[in-house]
Amino acid sequence: MPRPSLKNRRREEILDAYEICVAKFGVEGATLEKTAEEAGLARALLRHHVGNREELLDALVTRFLENSEIQTKGFYAALPANNRMETLISWLFDPEYSDSRSVLVAEALIAASEARPKLGVKIKAWVEDFVKQLSQEISQHAPQESPEAIEEVAMGITALYFNAESLTPLGALPDIRKTSAATCLRLLKSLKKGDVK
């Protein structure tokens, strides 16, 4: 079996270090110097393996979006046949499924989007895809409902989820998660007009 490329491994190590820096300092504060220090490498090696600061950001965004897509697909694939939406809501607000560093990176990317329109397009599409997948799941749960009602509930759940996730770096906040999940279930129940799928 061939050994993994040292360049690929080094690239991932650099992206890990940059991700830590973005989580700590935001996109603008995550300099090449700080990233090199976090990675324990010379700055020149960052440029050699990944590129300049913009290329480093592009690589991080690509990896963030790809990982998010993989996790989301796995998340939906693991839902049970019955009570899918109730289970989904339970999982969304379970702190076990939250990752503080990923939350901080997402927040940093969102914050940087205003000054970086190309980044903003990608992050906006990421959020819209989240809403779209959630809407599809809700429409299977309540197929008799109007698209407008489904979108309203999907937007409400999204807003509650993103808000609760944004507080993850503060540590355990079980009341906020519990109340947010209960509010999502209340929104979901507003759509019920028959048997739950």
Task: Please explain how this structure is put together.
It is built from nine helices and no strands. By secondary structure, it is mainly alpha-helical.
Topology:
Elements: H1 6-29, H2 32-39, H3 43-49, H4 53-77, H5 84-92, H6 100-113, H7 117-141, H8 147-166, H9 174-189
Helix pairs in contact: 1-2, 1-4, 1-6, 5-9, 6-7, 7-8, 8-9
Q: What class do helices, strands and sheet pairing give?
A: mainly alpha
Q: Please state the CA-atom Rg, rounded to the nearest Å.
A: 19 Å
| Average predicted confidence as pLDDT | 91
Helix content: over 70%
Count of strand segments: 0
CA(first)-CA(last) distance: 46 Å
Number of domains: 2
Which descriptor suits the 3D outline? Answer: elongated
Describe the main β-sheet briefly: none
Q: Return the string of H and E elements.
A: HHHHHHHHH
Sequence stretches where pLDDT stays below 50 over 5 or more residues: none
Percent of residues in beta strands: under 5%
Number of DSSP helical runs: 9
Observed structural traits:
75% helix; 9 helices; mainly alpha; elongated; 197 residues; Arc Repressor Mutant, subunit A; 2 domains
